[in-house]
Amino acid sequence: MKTKFGITKLFVIALTFLVIIVGCSPAPKASESSQPPASSGNASGNTSGGAVDLNSLDWSKLDDPALKNEEINLLVVDTEGDLTKLLQKFSDETGIKLKVSATDYNSLFNKITTAALSNSSEFDLIEMDTIWAGQFLAGNLVEDLTNVVPADVQSGFTQSSLSSVKYNDKLAAMPYFSSTKHFYWNMKMLKDAGYDAPPKTWTEFREMSKKLTKGGKYASGWSWKQAESLNCDFVGMVYSFGGSFFKQDGTLEVNSEGAVKALQYMTDLIRNDKTIDPASLQWTEDDVSNAFRAGKIAMMSNWEGQFPDVNDPSKSQIVDQADVGLLPGEGSVVSASVTGSEGIAIMKSSKHKLASLAFLKWMASKSFQEPNFTERGTYPVLQSLYEDPKVKEADKTQTIDKIMAQFEYGQNRPNGPGYVEWADILSAEVFKALAGNKSPKQALDDAASKIDQAIKKAQ
Amino acid sequence: MKKTATGGAFSALRLSPRAWKDTLLAILLLLPTIYILLKTFVSPIIESLVWSFYKYNLMDGSAIQYVGFRNYNQIFQMNEFWVSMKNTAYFTVFTVGAELALGFFCALLLNQMFRGRTFFRGIIIIPWAMLTLVNGLMWNWIYQPGYGGLTVVLHNLGLLSPDSNPVWLTNSTQIMTFASIADIWKMTPYMTLLLLAGLQSLNPALYEAAVMDGAGFWKKIWHITIPQLAPAMIVAVVLRVLGAFRVYDILTVFSNDPTTSVSFLTYNYAFRYFYLGRASAMAWISTIFILILIVIYIRMLKKNNELE
Predict the structure, then answer these.
(1) Is residue B56 a part of any domain in this protein?
(2) Given CB atoms, is A435 within the 8 Å cutoff of chain B?
(3) Is A189 contained in some domain?
(4) Is residue A43 in some structural domain?
(5) Which positions, given as ranges, span the membrane (chain B) (predicted)?
(6) Minimum mean pLDDT among A232-241, A309-318, A358-367, B226-235: which range?
(7) What is the tally of structural domains in chain A?
(8) Is 0.90 exceeded by the ipTM?
(9) Is A25's CB within 8 Å of B46's CB?
(10) Does A318 reside within a domain?
(11) Is A381 found in the same domain as A322?
(12) SS3 for chain B, per residue?
């Protein structure tokens, strides 16, 4: 009885305490980075007299000598350390001190959002994946550069790299590198099966796959683990089959006729034809690349940068056997691929915005873009560089034109503020269809309904 | 009792100047720790409780507004939440049950006298000492279809037909089962060590008396070891239940499916979707579940002490 009374008393006291705390606590405040910008952009070159505002975004003042005393911090993916070395040229050329905070891709999003949540001004510049553009702009994490970067500078970028850093026609970042998925095939395995050329359509791909699957080797392998890598392959496939992720009014649509056709095709390959390595359901892009280099699969869809390793005898069993080209299309669609281009954005919380803008100008120019390809093999965002003699000369595998050709068919993922949640729902449902737990139509209808609910709940 | 307490408090007020000085110094030295604890531990807890009553979507630019219990209501109606709770419960029961059985067996074995006992006691810690993610990656490799260790072993044993190549991680039940096996492999040594410590404190005279009464191996286990080991078992089980209920990291290796555990789902809502209000409410609901477990634990301990 005494114990019972004690527990009840404790519970009542705790409840009262909590009510008082909740009642007296202030409402959560929007982070500092959510406040309106202190200075507005100026791409026109209008200047007024007086000392330069080092926290302004004024393209016309990027040569101001006062910038030489500035120090900026860039958060960027660099696991090898070679990018950090290359970026030091910026300090040599401009006198602005650049600190590079290198990280791996998987930690990037967390580091950016942790900095934003804590109102930290630690990072002035951050690497931004295409799928974060809407979230970063709507969440006021990054500066809107639409009216900051002059139109003639923007027109020099490849269409795919520029569109991947935009959300609702607003420029969230400066294009940093160009990327899409490409089609790689093992010429020897194709020849052994009686083919001299890769498939041009998905129908041809399916027929060829049946002949290529033999002796414990599979025609293709895919990154179809329930993760973003699955969405990447699905997006390319949807556009190949004439589908889209947007209705005519611009709203999101994941269960279009083309999307259902695409998923049916993917499901048929893995469940009926069994021409895809079944491990694909547990693979991401790196696993697919490993299987391709081990000669276990004849064809794959993957990002750029496969060639140094695919022709390295210490890492590959298919040296000089691989080639790259356009991903197949279907019907009137020549080809379609998901865009993976990235940009570099200026954080709203930065206290050195003018120096950060100077970095973006340098990073998007030939001074960085050319050595970034010749020394690191990363594809440029400047259209003009694809005809540049130095770039052509550095292209030892003679693949730059083939890579460039695929960029023309790049398709962006719907990068709205809620993308991360929608993407999780979509990959979960698409995976269920591939694993045989749901029909493709049912899976995509369920994805559409769950995404609708998520959008409603977020309002 | 009351008199003593009052007397204690009263005498505390009549401290000598030196004792006052010591007390003040102690308070002064404690202040930085108290401040850090308040800022890093108490304040976030209170803040998350406040946030749970607000619509607070950090990354979509929407306004922050008070919504009362709407977040809690939404979570209770959310299918994903109940799926994640079911998966968490499955993981907790399966892993803790298996770890207790295996840990008890290993502890009994390591409590016997045999050559190399110290060596085996030492190496059993290795899985537990391994980083959870490293353990997850290792098991993820074992579960790879085709050339993964599990498929190869099953093929060699003839338990899988040569043309069969199953994909082990295709739905949440399979993911939970295989992730549980990885967790059991890692955490059984922890259970073993706790139970081994308990076994070593048992009075050998009890066993001698039992032998004289004609008790065999199983009778000694059932009537002496298990009842005497109960306090250590309760501690071990409760600690593991609390750990298993909060499982997150090992699951991320096998799948990106957030419904595999309630912690994974909460993490996603907080740090990937940035629905801080709903994530806080979700965290509080799971905290209440854990608090219930702690209350049960305290009551069991108390009951055990009373019996002794």
Answers:
(1) no
(2) yes
(3) yes
(4) no
(5) 24-46, 88-110, 122-142, 229-248, 273-298
(6) B226-235
(7) 2
(8) no
(9) yes
(10) yes
(11) no
(12) CHHHHHHHHHHHHCCCHHHHHHHHHHHHHHHHHHHHHHHHHHHHHHHHHHHCCEECECCCCCCCEECCCHHHHHHHCCHHHHHHHHHHHHHHHHHHHHHHHHHHHHHHHHCCCCCCHHHHHHHCCHHHHCCHHHHHHHHHHHCCCCCCHHHHHHHHCCCCCCCCCCCCCCCHHHHHHHHHHHHHHHHHHHHHHHHHHHHHCCCHHHHHHHHHCCCCHHHHHHHHHHHHHHHHHHHHHHHHHHHHHCCCHHHHHHCCCHHHCHHHHHHHHHHCCCEHHHHHHHHHHHHHHHHHHHHHHHHHHHHHHHHC
- Mutate which of A21, A33, A424 to disrupt the B interface (most B C-beta within 10 Å)? A424
Is A295 part of the contact surface with chain B (CB cutoff 8 Å)?
Answer: no
Nearest residue in A to B164, CA atom: A278
Question: Do A334 and A274 lie in a common domain?
Answer: yes
Q: Which residue of A has its CA nearest to B62?
A: A459
Residue A431 belongs to domain spanning: 182-338+418-458
- CATH code of the domain in which A80 resides: 3.40.190.10
Of B50, B74, B256, the CB nearest to A226: B256
- Inter-chain CB proximity A427 and B46 less than 8 Å: no
Does A9 map to a domain? Answer: no
Average pLDDT score over residue span B115-130:
91
Kindly report, residue by residue over B180-208, the tens digit of the pLDDT.
999 999 999 999 999 999 999 888 898 88
**How many domains, chain B?**
1
Is the CB of A420 less than 8 angstroms away from the CB of B47?
no
pTM recorded for the entire structure = 0.83
Q: What is the domain extent for residue B255? A: 70-307
**Shared-domain flag, residues A292 and A346:** no
The answer to whether the CB atoms of A420 and B143 lie below 8 A apart is no
Is the pLDDT reported for residue B264 higher than 60?
Answer: yes
Choice among A292-306, B205-219, B261-275 with the minimum mean pLDDT: B205-219
Check if A20 contacts B (Cβ < 8 Å).
no
Q: Reply yes or no on whether the pLDDT at A20 is more than 50.
A: yes
Tell me if B143 and A117 make a contact (CB, 8 A cut-off).
Answer: no
CATH number of the CATH domain containing B79 = 1.10.3720.10
